[in-house]
Specification:
Helix content is 47%, strand content 14%. It has 15 helices and 10 strands. The protein is globular, with a radius of gyration of 21 Å.
Length: 370
């Protein structure tokens, strides 16, 4: 960025991050300030680069799976799900219906857990401490469900090619139903604390506004796109893994600001509960793993699979040369795309608003730097 002057006053250039707690990871934002007003901003990434896409070229299709659990470590279930759908599509592998329903259920639990962590950190960044504690209270119950099925709480690894590694453990359904019975009241509590709170509204309404047309031009997706009123959700637009069997609504915003994106994610948690309730009520009997060869050698070609992750459209582009290892894997992570719009979103706002705008994008540096 070029050094400029405003009203004969030199613009101050400062670094926000990569150690700043409100950047949610090792993100460095180079800000140009005229007093407290943001004149320009530049995002600098690459501090967390792990080369997962390159590693995939030296692993078999099955050996790649644990790496994708760790790209977006807040939504490990969703990330590996997208990759497995791509591999199963390449191989023409059928997944048993029970496994498909359990996958959908766990992915929606993961969406709620991810949104809870987003709300907790977003709230505390803006100054709301109580909501931070409440969200972790509910998220803990979901992590207990993950632990019972996956054997892990964060970097979960239960989905396999053609299904799951095991069926639901004893007591899982009862614990899941208990959660979905109690959680609606908890979401109401969050809203009582925030939705009509004058301070929250002042810090979020009219902040980081982006129109639907601009959001599409930037390639945004997920709650950020839908907050601008664009009706696009991969689960509805291109149903996958059984989502066509379930009834749920896609919440939309009107103003495209930080407040609308907050409301979208709140409502998405309620819609995820609807989906989970339907999977439990209609969970079929049968095996949880279909037939798949021990060594996967897809036909030569290019393949693409996409899902609706908690942060938006998550895609996997896989190139096969006919061997047991992918020739090329490219991940399309939603927050990597969202981050490029940060410069546009923060210009003209106060420095304190940068924190709120970074939070509303719900970025995870693990998938940005991959």
């Amino acid at each position: 960025m070029e050094q400029t002057t405003v009203l004969d006053t030199q613009v101050l250039e400062i670094n926000m991050g990569p150690q700043h707690p409100s950047t949610h990871g090792v993100l460095r934002v180079k800000l140009q300030l005229d007093g407290e007003k943001v004149v320009d901003a530049d995002c600098i990434i690459g501090y967390l680069h792990r080369g997962i896409e390159k590693i995939s070229e030296n692993r078999s299709y099955i050996e790649c799976v644990p790496y994708y659990d760790r790209t977006d470590y807040i939504a490990a279930v969703s990330n590996v799900y997208g990759y497995l759908l791509g591999v199963e599509k390449m191989m023409g592998i059928e997944v048993p219906e029970r496994a498909r329903y359990i996958r959908v259920m766990m992915t929606e639990f993961n969406r709620i857990a991810s949104h809870l962590l987003w709300l907790a950190t977003h709230a505390i960044d803006i100054g709301a401490m109580t909501v931070f504690l409440y969200c972790f209270r509910e998220r803990e119950e979901i992590l207990k469900l993950f632990e019972s099925l996956f054997g892990a709480r964060l970097t979960t690894h239960a989905f396999r090619v053609a299904g799951l590694w095991k069926d639901l453990p004893p007591g899982f359904e009862q614990a899941a139903r208990k959660f979905i019975d109690e959680f609606p009241d908890r979401v109401d509590e969050y809203e009582q604390l925030l939705t009509h709170n004058r301070i929250w509204m002042d810090r979020t309404q009219g902040i980081g506004v982006i129109s639907g047309e601009e959001a599409i031009e930037w390639g945004l997706s997920g709650p950020v796109l839908r907050g601008s009123g664009v009706d696009y959700d991969v689960r509805k637009a291109r149903p996958y893994g059984g989502y066509e069997d379930f009834d749920f609504d896609v919440p939309l915003g009107k103003n495209g600001d930080t407040y609308d994106r907050y409301l979208i994610r709140i409502e998405e948690m309620r819609q995820s509960l609807r989906i989970i309730q339907q999977t439990l009520d209609r969970l079929p009997d049968g095996p949880v793993r279909g037939k798949a060869p021990r060594i996967l050698k897809p036909a030569v070609g290019e393949y693409f699979s996409t899902i609706e992750g908690p942060r938006g459209e998550l895609g996997y582009y896989i190139v096969s040369d006919g061997s047991a290892q992918p020739f090329r894997v490219r991940i399309r992570p939603p927050t990597f795309i969202s981050l490029q719009a940060l410069r546009t979103l923060v210009k003209g706002h106060l420095m304190a608003d940068v924190v709120a705008i970074i939070g509303t994008l719900d970025i995870v540096l693990g998938e940005i730097d991959r």
